[in-house]
Specification:
Blueprint: E1 2-6, H1 13-24, E2 28-32, E3 37-40, E4 47-50, E5 53-54, E6 60-63, H2 70-82, H3 91-98, H4 100-107, E7 117-118, H5 126-132, E8 138-142, E9 151-154, H6 157-169, E10 174-178, E11 186-193, E12 196-204, E13 219-222, H7 227-240, E14 244-252, E15 255-262, H8 268-274, H9 278-289, H10 297-301, E16 307-313, H11 325-328, E17 335-342, E18 345-348, E19 361-367, H12 368-373, H13 395-399, H14 407-410
Parallel strand pairs: 1-2, 1-6
Antiparallel strand pairs: 3-4, 4-5, 7-10, 8-9, 8-10, 11-12, 11-14, 12-13, 14-15, 16-19, 17-18, 17-19
Bound molecules: adenosine-5'-diphosphate and magnesium ion.
Length: about 400
């Protein structure tokens, strides 16, 4: 495999180890500075230049995008996606995981433990939000902090409210999050590669700090991971669209609580604590996957006018209840069922013999017009005629009055 590691820090431990692991396995590997690319956009020909020269073909990239260059870095990864170059972490995955709010929003619809969290804007909503997540002590977090910077523990509601007000007055967005006290300065970092955890460590904060980040002096030790934690980590990474990820989980009373999913997790702490060749595991995984480039499924499935993806829910009294997928007639209406979600279980590519039950959710691809017919009337919406603006609607129109439209134009 010809591999490019996208990194601004060729000499840092993680980059060095990844390059060594790739070279030791006989791959061709280059470390390319993320900010030295230029992205070229032409019809039918997405292109890339590196240091002013056209980039030669690569089979795979491994993005190591730091928080300070998320925008450019994800734009670059997206460009490689357009060129069908394999990446274990998609541009969307990196962008979604980088923002702690966005990541928790995406995770929150799944059956995964996350600390109760609020995001509010109005001053009068701050106190109720603190109460909703469990009252003081409470965690206040900047959306894009790393290495423990921007994570604050406020002992009282008064202090919390003052901190939030101060941060908001400087235009910073903050999360209000339950302080998972029983985890007491400890957390679990699970290193996910593909669909398994290849290494895991427990980090313990030092000197009375509640933050266990290795960069804050947290001491790391290898752990034999409880299967529930391993499963939570793998599913979180999968949901975020990341095949290489460091998943941070608190050890809550009710099990793992995912705090964040890191798309460029450091290797030094985890390899040091576990003595495992994590870099090698990443390279081996990529070499096995290189013929399956990451693709933006939505982008690819919505290119034909009139076709799209939607989720249909089987109602209690739907006549589809009790029918198999084959009997449902969906296929003959040009609708393909991609997944079936029953309670919290997702069945991929459900068989035609699968019998439908009330509340099943079908992720479908097909003709929007036919799918619309299957949605209960309340949610149905045929495209309506675009009406003419009434004079006086919006100030510019009012300034230049137009003759009133004939009545029939306004009739439904
Ligand atoms: N809700 C919480 N309850 C208890 N401890 C927390 C909570 N959120 C974060 N921490 C502690 O702070 C550390 C940093 O938080 P995290 O959300 O991972 O941000 P960062 O991106 O800075 O690592 C965690 O590793 C954990 O030790
Ligand atoms: Mg963290």
């Amino acid at each position: 495999m010809k591999l490019a590691i996208l990194s601004r820090a060729p000499r840092c431990y993680s980059t060095r180890r990844l390059r060594e692991a790739a070279a030791a396995r006989g791959h061709t590997v280059k470390v390319l500075d993320t900010l030295k690319f230029s992205i070229e956009l032409r019809p039918r020909a997405p292109g890339l230049h590196f240091r002013g020269k056209r980039l030669s073909h690569y089979d795979a990239i491994l993005p190591r995008i730091g928080a300070s260059i998320t925008y450019y870095g994800t734009a670059l990864v997206r460009q490689f996606e357009q060129l069908d170059v394999y990446t274990p972490n998609s541009a969307n995955g990196i962008a979604n995981s980088r923002d702690k709010l966005r990541a928790l929003q995406i995770l929150s619809r799944h059956d995964l433990g996350i600390p109760p969290t609020s995001f509010v804007r109005r001053k009068e909503d701050v106190l109720p939000a603190i109460e909703h997540v469990g009252g003081a002590p409470v965690i206040i977090k900047l959306l894009e902090g790393t290495q423990g910077v921007g994570v604050i523990l406020a002992d009282s509601v008064k202090i919390a409210a003052a901190i939030i007000e101060t941060l908001q007055s400087t235009k910073q967005n903050v999360l209000i999050q339950k302080f998972v006290g029983e985890s007491a300065g400890r957390d679990i970092r699970a290193f996910v590669v593909g669909d398994r955890v290849v290494a895991a460590m427990r980090r313990v904060a030092q000197g009375g700090d509640f933050r266990s980040n290795v960069h804050r002096g947290g001491q790391a030790q290898a752990v034999e991971l409880d299967p529930v934690f391993a499963d939570t980590a793998v599913r979180s990474a999968q949901i975020m669209g990341l095949k290489v990820a460091g998943v941070d989980m608190l050890e809550g009373r009710e099990g793992p609580q995912v705090m964040e999913v890191n798309s460029s997790p450091g290797l030094e702490g985890i390899e040091g604590a576990t003595g495992l060749d994590v870099a090698g595991a990443i390279i081996d995984y990529m070499a096995g996957q290189v013929s399956f480039p990451e693709l933006d499924i939505r982008q690819r499935l919505t290119v034909t006018a009139g076709y799209g993806v939607t989720e249909l829910t089987i109602g209690e009294s739907s006549n589809l209840v009790g029918q198999t997928l084959a009997e449902s007639g969906l296929r003959s209406k040009d609708i393909v069922v991609l997944t079936l979600t029953r309670e919290v279980n997702v069945i991929s590519n459900p068989k035609s013999s699968r019998v439908l039950e009330p509340h099943d959710r079908l992720l479908c691809y097909g003709k929007l017009e036919h799918m619309r017919d299957l949605v209960p009337a309340r949610r149905k919406g045929k495209p309506s005629k675009v009406r003419k603006l009434q004079p006086g609607a919006g100030s510019p129109a009012a300034a230049t009055p137009e003759p009133a439209p004939p009545l029939e134009d306004l009739a439904p």
